Amino acid sequence: MGSIAERIQIIQKNIEAACRRSGRDPEQIQLILVTKTASMTAIQEVIRLGFTDLGENRVQHLKQIADEVDAFLKQQQAENPSFHKQVRWHMIGHLQRNKVKQTLQICNYIHSVDTLRLAEEINTAAAKLDHHPNVLLQVNCSEEPQKYGVPVGAAVHLAEQIASMPNLRLIGLMTMAPLTMNKEVVRACFARCREIFEEIRSANIGGAKFKHLSMGMSQDYEIAVEEGATILRIGSAVFA
Ligand SMILES: *Cc1c(COP(=O)(O)O)cnc(C)c1O
Predict the structure, then answer these.
(1) pLDDT band for position 163 (50/70/90)?
(2) Which residues pair with 138 in a beta bridge?
(3) Tens digit of each residue's pLDDT (9 = 90 or more) over 178-227
(4) Residue 202 to residue 210: CA distance in whole angstroms
(5) Residue 179 Rama label (left phi>0; alpha psi -120 to 50; beta)
């Protein structure tokens, strides 16, 4: 399977090829590396390689890993004053309202906002901390009943409500494709998310900051790029 650096290089080549197929610019695509299964050594390596947007799906693990990463960054800075890397943490998993404050102390990006109550909780907690977190509305584009995410039919209205909250910056939509080998099912899910995204944009909800589609994981990121993703969340293809 090669080293971490080689695996990232392969992913970047695949992203470039998907961009060529769909007439897109690879510069428009951000890679978030999902560390939930990664060792600390592997995380240090990706940071050294310059990949500093990291994602976690559980608050408990996020806190532990973020502390270890902080210690690593401090140590690197002490050894080498020209080392200036900072990590941006992204919460990508289901978030319980009682974990919001803890999450905001670490993350400036939350991809998994999917109810009005959660958005209100984040807005209130952010106001107390004087934070303006970037949030994405998670949409259940696969319409599987067991999935998190706002139902497709309620997405535009919820986006409007979130965009009106003073401490939240609504920067886009997030979705997860169903776990299936059927690429057309995956593609249809991403295409549906992009349609909702375009609808929200044309209604000017969220203004110019509303510009991201967070979709695509290790198994399906090339399809996501072809369907307009601007943020990919990749874990196992790098760390497994
Ligand atoms: C784990 C996870 C990912 C990354 O999945 P991989 O298949 O390991 O690339 C992306 N998004 C969410 C919400 C996740 O929980």
Answers:
(1) very high
(2) 174
(3) 999 999 999 999 999 999 999 999 999 999 999 999 999 999 999 999 99
(4) 11
(5) beta
CA nearest to 111, candidates 128, 89, 86: 89
Q: Residue 148 region, left (φ>0) first, then alpha (ψ -120 to 50), else beta?
A: beta
- Measured from the Cβ of residue 152, the count of other Cβ atoms closer than 10 Å reads 17
Separation CA 137–CA 110 (nearest Å): 9
* Tokens found for residue 40: 């600390």
State how beta strands 169-174 and 134-140 pair.
Answer: parallel
Can you tell me which atom of ligand 1 is nearest the CA of 92? 13
Domain count, the chain: 1
Residue-number span of the structural domain to which 53 is assigned: 4-239
How confident is residue 15, by pLDDT bands cut at 50, 70 and 90? very high
Q: Report the separation in Å between the CA atom of 81 and the middle of ligand 1, taken as the mean of its atom positions.
A: 34
pLDDT of residue 147: 84
Residue 132 burial by Cβ neighbours in a 10 Å radius (0-12, 13-18, 19+): middle
**Percent of the chain scoring above 70 in pLDDT:** 100
Our mutation pick for probing the ligand 1 site, out of 46, 57, 111, 114, counting the most ligand atoms within 8 A of Cβ, is: 57
CATH number at residue 174: 3.20.20.10
Residue of 136, 173, 186, 217 to mutate, ligand 1, most atoms within 8 A of C-beta: 217
